[in-house]
Amino acid sequence: MSTSSILPRVHIGEVIRNAVVFNPENHQKHPVNADSLIETVARFFALLHERRINYVLVGGIALLQYVEGRNTEDIDLIMALSALERLPEVVVETRDDDFARGKFGDLQVDVLLTSNALFEEVRRQYTTTRQFVEQDIPCATVEGLILLKLYSLPSLYRQGNFTRVGLYENDVATLLQTHKPAIDPLLVKLAAYLSENDLTQVKQIVTEIQQRITRFEERS
After folding, report:
1. Based on C-alpha coordinates, what's the Rg of the chain?
2. Strands, sheet with 107-113, edge to edge from the N-terminal-most edge strand
3. What is the pTM of this model?
């Protein structure tokens, strides 16, 4: 039996509220009514449903459908720019060709725009419906999440973002160890979206992760 079949149903609002409450940096910033985040999250997903917005949940919340212990303060979605424009309640703070970041009340919403071909591929081919406390939500599959994490890693290395590199590599390792998806087809898929150098780096990262998993399983 897979871990995903026995994990408790995820309460998105509680996950985000708890992450906000237990992040000490938030106590030094503009105060947020953490308890209201539960209602805000429920309203946000209800709005997506009412407007019939085509989206896919990704990021830390989606990961919680497959593994335990991930902590996150925001909602990550794949969505077309045209769909985002149908949500004027989300105040967009920054945007480039691939990403947009905005606020729905106190809730941070990060959008991976489908103008990026890989993001659109995940939306079309690597999506399933999962049950959350709030409602049933379209969510990236294990394979979709791995694709997104591996795709991001070369850029994070170039940025010198050691914290996120460690987080993403650990996410990939946990998904691979827990669910054992076939990784070679995913690397073939990534070849269409990464430069040769970046793909080589990703393959090296995957090899190192697989070696870590082997060492762990041999000692268990």
Report:
1. 17
2. 91-95, 99-104, 107-113, 74-79, 55-58, 136-140, 127-131
3. 0.92
User: Please, are residues 170 and 150 in contact by the beta-carbon 8 Å criterion?
Assistant: no
pLDDT digits (tens, 9 = 90+) for 159-205: 999 999 999 999 999 999 999 999 999 999 999 999 999 999 999 99
Residue 179 carries which side chain, given as an amino acid letter? Answer: H
Fold of 3-140: Beta Polymerase; domain 2 (3.30.460)
Count of residues for the chain? Answer: 220
Beta strand 107-113 pairing with 99-104 = antiparallel
The rounded distance, in Å, linking the Cα atoms of 188 and 147 is: 11
Give the Cα separation of 149 and 107 in Å (integer). Answer: 23
Bridge partners for 132 per DSSP: 10
- Extents of the domains making up the chain: 3-140, 144-219
How remote is the C-alpha of 211 from its chain's centroid?
Answer: 24
Beta-bridge partner residues of 74: 108
DSSP conformation class of 10: B
**CA neighbor of 174 nearest in space, from 138, 145, 134:** 145
**Tokens 């269409």 identify what position?**
192
Q: Are strands 91-95 and 74-79 parallel, antiparallel or unpaired?
A: unpaired
